[in-house]
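[step 3/7] fold_predict: job queued, chain A
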Amino acid sequence: MHYIMTLFWSVLLVSMLNYVVSSVQNVDFVFSHGIIMSIPVAIMVMIIAAIIPNEPVAKTQH
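[step 4/7] structure written:
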């Protein structure tokens, strides 16, 4: 479920960004470009989530 929701939000946010940028640049909006670019974005998010540790950092007093 985690991967499905990551892909869903990636598609949603990248398509929204694609729409805004194409509107600002006055070019045609192509939905498939947003879908294609959202897959690498989702993979990068999953890699970054795997690299970041989940456990809290121990506090040391100096």
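[step 5/7] annotate
The CA atoms of residues 41 and 61 lie 39 Å apart.
The first helix runs from residue 2 to 24.
exit 0
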